[in-house]
């Protein structure tokens, strides 16, 4: 995504791509030329042939067409917002599941039978590895939505490389018995192109990465791969056709009649709303591993029933979310609806200058241009955000979401799970402020019956009764301080 004000804040040609002007300017120019032709031919001093027609249908058809375009844009924006909500669910479920595994699965497993032989270091490695798999899930969903098959990516393979690869559960085995996770339909490997960020900066792992550019793959494990890893981000290159979309039609004609062009693999276009179904469902296979781990923990008594239920619910949320994302990605608006709407708009804009010339004369030219810019722009915006998971500048920043998950999982695993008594009774803790500002260490030195309100050592009811009076008094003080005037 780009900044909220891409036009007037650090303007660049890359940010110009975030607008739809480069997609509609050819059409706007065409209808402006039509309006110019109508004005010149209808001018008594030049052509002398009045091409004006009755504008009785102008208001009715314009209103109906505007409502249909508004519905088209609203439905596309709803899909956009649904995609954002689904990614919020992924972040929330990942965070909750990681907390449950890190805090509630014990590392000290004395009295757990065979599990008692494992050291605390081994148990910590076990939990941290499973939490890394939770981070791999969001990355796998990102590639899944972008139609990028397999696991051989710089940001995904290091998190999954240790998983079993063959039917016997090992890392080596006979050819043809690879598990689905490691099956990749892309058998032809071309040279890996250097990926670019949405503003055109180099984001590869090479040594010539620009100074100051974020390179989150450096935080991942350094794992050797038997295959060349694909970039974490590999958007299609910008071409001449991205700036003049009209010529895409001629390119399609040339490719249709050229046998050589048909023999070449088709490159992914920049603005593609539908990437088709991805057969290698990596997110599903990751949840299978995580589900197996939670089942193993429950079987061996490492999870309390309530925590096991919560972990299962969060795993279910992850799968429900990716199913909803798949629905958004793989359900484009029907072609008949889009084609009919666009043709209707073209006909309306073509006949618009004929209907307004009699009233506006030469002002019909800028009027037609503005109407074309307005209506075609909203129609193109609807198509632009219909599938918000690709590399367009207006799409959701999936890489940012994955990095947010990565950062939060590392934050969770940095928590040491200490005994609360180790940090509660210190001089830095004043639990009963503002009424009683004595530290927890001072309060704990006496017994329950010795507690009294500050400056009330001779209170008639020391102990718990006095403590309750302190809490009520604190509430009154806070309520008076925070009450608005």
Automatic annotation (TrEMBL):
Q: Where in the cell is it found?
A: Cell membrane
Q: Which residues cross the membrane?
A: 20-41, 53-71, 345-365
* Pfam family name, one: Bestrophin_2
Q: How does it sit in the membrane?
A: Multi-pass membrane protein
Q: Which UniProt keywords apply?
A: Cell membrane, Ion transport, Membrane, Transmembrane, Transmembrane helix, Transport
Specify whether Ion transport is a keyword of the entry.
Answer: yes
Q: Which InterPro entries match?
A: YneE/VCCN1/2-like (IPR044669)
One annotated GO molecular function: chloride channel activity
**Gene Ontology CC, one term:** plasma membrane
- This chain belongs to which protein, by name? Bestrophin, RFP-TM, chloride channel-domain-containing protein
Tagged with keyword Lyase: no
């Amino acid at each position: 995504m780009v900044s909220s004000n891409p036009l007037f804040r650090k303007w660049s040609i890359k940010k110009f791509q975030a607008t739809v002007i480069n997609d509609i300017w050819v059409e706007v120019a065409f209808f402006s030329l039509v309006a110019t032709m109508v004005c010149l031919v209808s001018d008594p001093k030049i052509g002398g042939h009045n091409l004006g027609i009755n504008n009785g249908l102008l208001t009715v058809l314009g209103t109906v067409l505007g409502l249909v375009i508004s519905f088209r844009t609203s439905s596309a924006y709803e899909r956009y917002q649904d995609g954002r909500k689904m990614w919020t669910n992924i972040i929330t479920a990942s965070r909750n599941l990681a907390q449950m595994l890190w805090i509630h699965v014990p590392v000290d497993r004395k009295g757990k039978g065979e599990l008692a032989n494992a050291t605390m270091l081994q148990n910590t490695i076990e939990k941290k590895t499973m939490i890394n798999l939770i981070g791999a899930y969001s990355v796998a969903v990102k590639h899944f939505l972008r139609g990028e098959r397999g696991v051989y990516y710089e940001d995904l393979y290091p998190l999954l490389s240790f998983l079993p690869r063959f039917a016997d559960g090992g890392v080596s085995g006979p050819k043809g018995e690879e598990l689905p996770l490691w099956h990749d339909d892309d058998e032809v490997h071309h040279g890996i192109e250097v990926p670019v960020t949405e503003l055109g900066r180099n984001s590869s792992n090479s040594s010539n990465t620009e100074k100051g550019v974020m390179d989150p793959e450096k935080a991942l494990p350094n794992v050797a791969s038997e295959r060349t890893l694909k970039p974490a981000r590999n958007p299609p290159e910008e071409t001449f056709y991205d700036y003049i979309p009209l010529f895409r039609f001629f390119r399609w004609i040339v490719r249709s009649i050229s046998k050589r062009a048909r023999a070449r693999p088709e490159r992914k276009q920049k603005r593609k709303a539908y990437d088709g179904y991805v057969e290698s469902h990596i997110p599903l296979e990751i949840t299978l591993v995580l589900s197996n781990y939670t089942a193993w923990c429950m079987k061996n008594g490492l999870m309390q029933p309530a925590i096991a239920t919560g972990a299962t619910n969060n795993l279910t949320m992850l799968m429900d979310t990716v199913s909803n994302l798949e629905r958004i990605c793989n359900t484009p608006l029907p072609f008949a609806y889009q084609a009919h709407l666009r043709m209707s708009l073209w006909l309306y804009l073509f006949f618009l200058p004929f209907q307004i010339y009699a009233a506006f004369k030469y002002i019909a030219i800028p009027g037609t241009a503005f109407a074309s810019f307005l209506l075609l722009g909203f129609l193109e915006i609807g198509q632009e955000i219909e599938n918000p998971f690709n590399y367009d500048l207006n799409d959701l920043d999936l890489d940012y979401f994955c990095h947010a998950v990565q950062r939060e999982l590392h934050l969770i695993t940095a928590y040491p799970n200490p005994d609360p008594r180790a940090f509660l009774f210190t001089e830095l803790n004043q639990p009963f402020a503002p009424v009683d500002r004595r530290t927890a260490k001072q309060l704990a030195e006496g017994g329950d019956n010795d507690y009294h309100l500050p400056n009330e050592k001779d209170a008639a009811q020391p102990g718990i009764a006095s403590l309750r009076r302190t809490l009520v008094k604190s509430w009154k003080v806070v309520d008076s301080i925070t009450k608005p005037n």
